[in-house]
Amino acid sequence: EDKVVQSPLSLVVHEGDTVTLNCSYEVTNFRSLLWYKQEKKAPTFLFMLTSSGIEKKSGRLSSILDKKELFSILNITATQTGDSAVYLCAVEPLNPGSSNTGKLIFGQGTTLQVKP
Amino acid sequence: EAGVAQSPRYKIIEKRQSVAFWCNPISGHATLYWYQQILGQGPKLLIQFQNNGVVDDSQLPKDRFSAERLKGVDSTLKIQPAKLEDSAVYLCASSPRLISGNTIYFGEGSWLTVV
Question: How many CB atoms are located within 10 Å of the residue A47 CB?
């Protein structure tokens, strides 16, 4: 069964700290891994990763994928209170014939709280 | 561009009652998804439509949940009868078609509490 596991489940830091969120996965046919931020409303897209070792970066956030070890990390530097949210990792599998499924398998999320 | 619209936003019902949620996807999006997100967990796919056909409903509890997308646009998710464990946020999402995951857009969710 396809599975996505995130760690830690929750994290409390102070403004200015750097945090690393982890996501490991087991998927039969892998297409991509995605990170979302969720603040008590719709999940908003952060990154999509398809290739190993290529860092994606957006401001203070960055992410990288290791397809050999089947994990990804999301880094947030110089955290701010506005970064407080649930961070979701999801994997998009392929069908056995390598066609897109269009569906996402989510981990349980990491709840990040940034204190002033 | 208007986003994915869902209603109602919040609903409280007693167990064994029924409830229906409505979703209007982004205009022109062929693929529509319903996800269930229980507090403290990640979203779980319940059903996926491509136009008005079902692509995947393997995780839909069909004894109590039903969903339809009759004209390939709006969709309705119904729960009858509701159980306490159905308390969750029901997220609707849409994408242009079965392409990459970064083209999936989520609505703000319908929050269901079953008492």
Answer: 22
